[in-house]
Amino acid sequence: MKIATFNVNNVNKRLPNLLAWLKSSKPDVVCLQELKAAQSEFPEGALGKAGYAAEWVGQKTWNGVAILARKSEIVVTRRSLPGDANDNQSRYIEAAIGGVLIACVYAPNGNPQPGPKFDYKLAWLKRLNAHAGKLLKSGAPAVIAGDFNVVPTPNDIYPTKSWDKDALVQPEGRAAFAKLLKQGWADALRECHPDEPMYTFWSYWRNRFERDAGLRIDHLLLSPALRPHLQKAGVYRAVRGKPDPSDHAPAWITLK
Hints:
By secondary structure, this protein is of the alpha+beta class. It has a single domain (2-255), classed as Endonuclease/exonuclease/phosphatase (Deoxyribonuclease I, Chain A, 4-Layer Sandwich). It has helices at residues 15-25, 44-49, 116-138, 171-183, 188-192, and strands at 2-7, 29-33, 52-57, 65-70, 75-78, 92-97, 100-106, 142-147, 186-187, 218-222, 230-235, 251-255. The strands form two sheets. A six-stranded mixed beta sheet has the order 3-4-2-1-12-11. A six-stranded mixed beta sheet has the order 5-6-7-8-10-9. The longest helix has 23 residues, at 116-138. The N and C termini lie close together (7 Å). The record marks 149 as: Transition state stabilizer. The active site is at 106, 147 (proton donor/acceptor), 248 (proton acceptor). GO terms for molecular function: DNA binding; double-stranded DNA 3'-5' DNA exonuclease activity; endonuclease activity; metal ion binding.
């Protein structure tokens, strides 16, 4: 099973790029983030013609998450992250596909920090940790994939001080990510590539993609039941170099 995560940064605007990538890479399951589309505006028909079933939680202008599956049924188990009944931002969807529980996450960016947006991010990550712990206790083979908006370590960002005040690199977010790993989740990209940068995001500004001035903020975490089945992992970096691209590239894993 090949599972990928891709912050598509507007699913309708980037649809040609998305469809081309799906055709060439043929992932079995895809987690999409930042749809920037209301529920009724999601391109279900075009993706269906490409061979993918879809379940999604849209949101006008911002946010939005989706799970795609090729040749498999999607059984949705959650459409929101538990822990705050008043949170109406579309940032989480969870489903069973082919015997694996897939959680698609789009964590808050948190900028500017300090401030209410950063406070919301930390509260959201705390809720994610709590729910992730329950998933582990269930014993289900599970993957948490998506845009965590956290650069886990200094090795996950190009050499620079220009991001030092950004919410993506703050110690509180890094601590929340580290807590997930301490629970027992495995960082699949780092399992396969312990030392390489493996960037997944390059800002549109200052030729950062061309200079490979990237960050790793898109992650695939595996439960202990799946960790032994991990075969390969990587980043489809070339997708970021296409015309009118997302500022992210898809990250992927294969499970035996």
